[in-house]
Design goal:
Elements: H1 6-18, H2 42-48, E1 55-60, H3 63-66, E2 70-71, E3 76-85, H4 102-127, H5 134-149, H6 160-190, E4 192-195, H7 201-206, E5 211-215, H8 219-224, H9 230-242, E6 243-246, H10 251-257, E7 264-269, H11 270-284, E8 289-305, H12 311-324, H13 327-335, H14 340-343, E9 348-351, H15 357-384
Parallel strand pairs: 5-6, 5-7
Antiparallel strand pairs: 1-8, 2-8, 3-7, 3-8, 4-9
Length: 385
């Protein structure tokens, strides 16, 4: 069996420095956590049962683990990130309504009705009630002010100074509203922007439809069994309802198969995320994953040996030397040669691509609805003579 990676390099360095040979014991694919009967699974279980003299890991240092195995000097400090697929722009056929919120659109329609009523009232007072019917006056004023709202030319003159004042106020309001709308819509259509929905642990917990993928039998999963309150209590309940635990040896493959499907978020150490980034970019030339800026569960990571074993002191000295000279950092960088292109992702992703029918079908539906309504009105007018 061939071992590679920074921890494999550490093992080779220990073997050369301490002059020993080794054989690799095949485990069950887990790091190690206590079981219901008091035993431990994973690599920690192998060391505890003395089936192995050294657990390479590295393993997160916790008090519970320190009661059954010995930890060497920490190799590094690590935190967990939320790894999700890079968001892509989805068709938004109703985007032409996006510049304004629903409340603003309601206020615009209400303003149209109010201005129509005010103009009708002023004209009725100035000319007298006897001229024309109230019904035709309402429709005529409504169409006229709606034409003004759409910036169409209208051959119409307000009656009296009050009528002109109402028209002037409506023109100014329409000018501000329509210029704001057209500018915002142009900006939205020119460049599609996609916000990052899951940028922290709280973001992932807030979506009940999201499946949480994490390593099984880790220090975190052991802690979650007793967590009752706070963010970790919330995480424990979420993992119980919609969590998916996989073996440590299968995490990278799970990232490539589950995350692109959508609806999944993975909890992974930074070095593991970098490995996913680098390998995927080496194969495809794309950055299809996003690493959250929010982090959680900080731990020191070490090699494990049997408790009170003299090998621990010897390993400590070598780890201190490798860390002090920056050798281990170089090893991790060699493991992820193509990480720099994908490492820094903007919080807002921009896309430039032509619009297809799936983006604009609502506009054509709106047009078709207007034409059908006009046809019905026209047919009604013909029928009524």
């Amino acid at each position: 069996m061939t071992t590679t990676g920074p921890m494999a390099n550490l093992l080779h360095a220990l073997a050369d420095s301490l002059n020993f040979t080794y054989s690799v014991v095949q485990g069950d694919g887990y790091w190690g956590a206590p079981q219901g009967n008091g035993s431990w699974n994973g690599m920690i279980g192998l060391v505890l049962r003395k089936e192995a003299d050294l657990g390479l890991g590295p393993f997160g240092v916790t008090f519970e683990r320190s009661q059954v195995v010995g930890f060497t000097w920490p190799v590094f400090r690590e935190v967990l990130h939320v790894l999700v697929p890079r968001p892509r722009p989805q068709p938004q056929p109703w985007q032409f309504l996006a510049p304004f919120t629903l409340v603003v659109w309601v206020c615009v329609l209400a303003s149209l009705v109010v201005v129509t009523g005010a103009a009708l009232l002023v004209e009725t007072v100035n000319r007298g009630v006897g001229e024309g019917t109230t019904h035709r006056g309402v429709i005529s004023h409504l169409i006229t002010h709606f034409q003004i709202f759409l910036s169409q030319s209208v051959k119409w003159e307000g009656v009296g100074e009050a009528g002109r004042a109402v028209t002037a106020v409506w023109l100014i309001a329409v000018l501000v509203v329509m210029r704001t709308y057209s500018g915002a819509l142009t900006s939205l259509l020119a460049v599609k922007k996609v916000g990052l929905k899951y940028d922290s642990l709280k973001d992932a917990l807030a979506d009940p439809r999201l499946t949480l993928v994490m390593e099984g039998s880790t220090a975190l999963t052991a802690y979650l069994k007793s967590a009752k309150s706070g963010v970790y209590g919330e995480l424990a309940r979420a993992v119980g309802e919609r969590g998916l635990q996989v073996k440590a040896s299968q995490m990278q493959e799970a990232a490539y198969t589950l995350l692109p499907q959508g609806g999944h978020a993975m909890f992974l150490e930074r070095i593991g995320c970098n490995k996913v980034y680098s390998d995927h970019f080496s194969k495809t030339g794309r950055c299809d994953f996003y690493l959250s800026r929010g982090v959680f569960w900080p731990l020191l990571y070490s090699v494990v040996v049997p408790r009170h074993h003299p090998l621990g002191i010897l390993v400590d000295a070598r780890i201190l030397a490798l860390r002090g000279f920056g050798v281990y950092k170089v090893w991790t960088q060699m493991m992820t040669p193509n990480i720099t292109h994908c490492l820094r992702m903007p919080t807002t992703l921009k896309y430039n691509e032509p619009f297809a029918l799936r983006h604009l079908w609502a506009v054509f539906l709106f047009l078709a609805g207007g034409l059908v309504a006009a046809l019905i009105i026209f047919a009604s007018e013909l029928a009524l003579g």
